[in-house]
Amino acid sequence: MTSAPSRMDRRHAIGRKLREWRFKRDLSQVEVARAAEITQASLSNYETGKRDMPLSTFLGVAAALDVGIGDLLDVPEIVVVRDSRIGLAMARLVQHPELADSLTAPALGEAAS
Predict the structure, then answer these.
(1) Which helix (H) or strand (E) holds 93?
(2) How many C-beta atoms lie closer than 10 Å to residue 32's C-beta?
(3) Do residues 95 and 101 lie in contact, with contact meaning Cβ atoms separated by under 8 Å?
(4) Which of 29, 39, 42, 85 is the most exposed place for a label (fewest CB within 10 A)?
C-alpha cells in the first residue's frame, strides 16, 4: 500500500509541471509572472516547490500559461470550460480575489430545501 504524497512532494510536482508548461509555451518566468500578476521571484519559488501557492495565484498562472488546471495537477478529470459560467466566474475571482471574501456556504437548513 502506497502512502499519499506529502505536501512537499505535491508542491514539487506542481512546480515541475509549471516549469514544463512554461517551457512548452516558450515563455520566460518574467512573462508568466507579469501575466499572472506576481513577481518573477514568486514564480521561481513555486516552480522549485519552495512555497505553497494560493489558489488565486495558481489559477492566474494556469491562465497565463493557457493550460488547464487538471494538466497542472495531473488530474485529467478536471474540466473547466473557459466560456462557461463557472469559467467566467473563476476568471473574475482571479482578477478580483477580494470577491471570494463574500462567498459563504449556504446554511444547512437552506441546503435541505
Answers:
(1) helix 85-95
(2) 22
(3) no
(4) 85
